[in-house]
Amino acid sequence: MVQSTFHVAIIMDGNGRWAAERGLPRTRGHEAGADAVERTVQAAPTHGITDLTLFAFSSDNWQRPKHEVEALMRLFHSYLLRQSGRCRENGIALRVIGRRDRLSPALVEAIEVAERRTAGGSRMTLRIAVDYSARWSLAHAAGSSDLRAAIARANHDATPMPDVDLLIRTGREQRLSDFLLWESSYAELHFTATMWPDFTADELARAVAVFRSRSRRFGHVDAVEAAHGS
Ligand code: FPP
Question: What separation in Å is there between the alpha carbon of 13 and the centre of ligand 1?
């Protein structure tokens, strides 16, 4: 069966430690992380990735120091202003998923403009998760007869996202941190010690190559095994 979508989700971890290792403030790590986002977004379609979802700010991240939260919000804002034109040129539809009621009106406006500007992109859908919590979106969608569509609505996503095929987490930790819990039910997991600011297009290519070498059975058995079974 030919797969029509290839969804890669990334938990971009390690910005703070990358900065600390260099004696820099954490916010410099986030700035370097934004450069890694640009590299990854531009490289992704060349690997056949149709959907790329990046975990940029979890609902738990509001607990961070105020100046760090403000710096992150400024980075998201400037990314949307700077990159939506490039996304449009490259056929990338940009969407921001998650809650919007706690974001500043200026950021919400920038999100809406970027989404409108890039809506025609058909090469890849880039979802940036900001104020995102999988548990929150599931709780808000619970009880609906079409949970997938209800989750998308809760997250302001224009179309329900396909299941995650490959979930990458950088920064040495091996946990899901409330990211895409429903959508990652059958995701292949790839953990790397690389800190997010050091993540390169080559490393993305390696992760995709490892993914392609894996046998995905979705709870079934391989045809060969089935033929040999009793
Ligand atoms: C986790 O590293 C990273 C974040 C909470 C923020 C992610 C943000 C970016 C990659 C920058 C900009 C993003 C966009 C979309 C423009 P951490 O701070 O938890 O690192 P640590 O675990 O080493 O402290």
Answer: 6
